[in-house]
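Our preliminary data section would be incomplete without showing what the modeling component actually yields. Below, a chain of 312 amino acids is followed by its predicted structure, encoded as tokens that our downstream tools consume directly.
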Amino acid sequence: MNMFRTSILTILSVSFLCCSTIVSAQKSGAVSKKDIPKGFASTANGLIFQQVRKSKTGSLPKISDIVSFRARYSLQRGKSDSLLFDSKNNPGGFVTLQLSIPEYKGDLMEGLAMLQPGDSAIFLVPADSFFMKTIRVETLPPFIKPGERMRFEIGMAEVNTVEQMQKKQALQDSIAQIEMKTVNEKEMQVLLAKMQEKGDNQMPESSGLIIINRKSGNGIKPKPGQKVSVHYTGTLLNGTVFDSSVERNQPISFTLGQGEVIKGWDEGIAAIEVGGKATLMIPSWLGYGARSVGPIPANSSLIFEVELINIE
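Predicted structure:
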């Protein structure tokens, strides 16, 4: 969960607002020396910090840049801190957000703007301001006491402009699509091999669905929006039966083309005549996808023997 604000600012507003906001804060943001712990310093804007590691390469982020960093933050309580968040529990182990203008004295946003990739630092942020103005809770949590501070341990990993981030995202999406296509192709090869093993030879539809007609019906096929009644027996590729309306002697009824059943059924049943029977060989992306449903494992190809009983 991203615990920080991710407000979007335009480049034009930054050039005017950034200077006026920070300058005004500098005049009233000074921190008394007695309030600065040993080993720490304070910015003119009132952010207390301690530089832990300084990189010799890279550049500082600018307002509206996308920053990714490792983060731990705790509520300071004397000699022992109470850990509230650790980004290692996030997917990838990082927090990613868009850098925005500091809104209050001691705002963490100022600290993030001080770090280039490879840098790490500790920041002490007013707890009440953090919860009320950064996380934007309506009321301050009861465990927060006046004057308490949050201790942020930040390690900057990456800085990107919006344009750079968009290009990276497009590349990642492209790679993901290629990987998915490869996985789908392998699944289709297995599905086709299973079909041929049963002595059938039917070209898949463009979607990947294989429809093998077993018995013709009365020539009438259902249309989207019509309610149909269907008998079926569903099996996994290894032959395990996971469901059967035939065994229950109770056909299923649903409205065709309304997403009430899996995509392979909406497409397959529409191709069958009333009274007709068919085998539907359904790849996982037309079935339950990455979800496991009851006895059906995730990413399973499915085989259904179906009979269109009637159109209601």
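The longest strand covers residues 66-77. Helices lie at 11-28, 108-112, 127-134, 162-197, 245-248, 263-269. Preliminary results of this kind motivate Aim 1 of the renewal.
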